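Here comes an entry:

___
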Amino acid sequence: KARVDLTTRDLLLNPERAAECRYATRIPTLHVIVGDRRLVAVEDAIVSDLGRESRLAEGLAPLLPHYDLVLIDTPPNLGVLAINALCAADGVLVPVQTEYFALEGLAMLLSTVEQVRRRLNPGLGVDGVLMTMHAPTLLNQQVAGLLREHLGDVVVEPPIRRNIRLAEATSRGEPIHVHAPKSNGGQDHLAVANALSARWGLTRGPEA
């Protein structure tokens, strides 16, 4: 893995340095700002700061005109870092495993999104719920059915199936469309990307 000098930690502590924190990738037009283990200490460092929830939004603001789409990956907890992401975002895409235990976490997250919308970011909405790690079992099908029944068009189709190629791609640091584009995982991700491109009004979706 390539070593980087500046990460999301630096962006949050020094939002004015955001442009220095982004790095080009092998994919043209795709840039990343990476996280690292030091992010764990950032919450303690900014928890008492005035305007701590808006640090990420402040840092990303000058970069936004240069991109059609910015995706922010968040930690699974709902601490200061996740709230920063919600304050910087226009919409939330929620990945949910098609397991019953995941439904409780989804309800909590949707409640938090609503609180952030009312108090901190009036433009925030839920852009979609993405079903992941899906398997052709009765339990998975039942959970998928419940999500479709209660959330309707908010659910993004199709579900992303469990696939070993996805784990391999992660371990290699490669996008699935580079590592194994014809696999179930690759085809599911392509279908979801095209569905989201249409939902977000992007002029050109991913190519097959």
Observations:
- The longest strand covers residues 125-132.
- The beta strands are 23-24, 31-32, 91-97, 125-132, 155-156.
- The chain has ten helices and five strands.
- The longest helix spans residues 100-119.
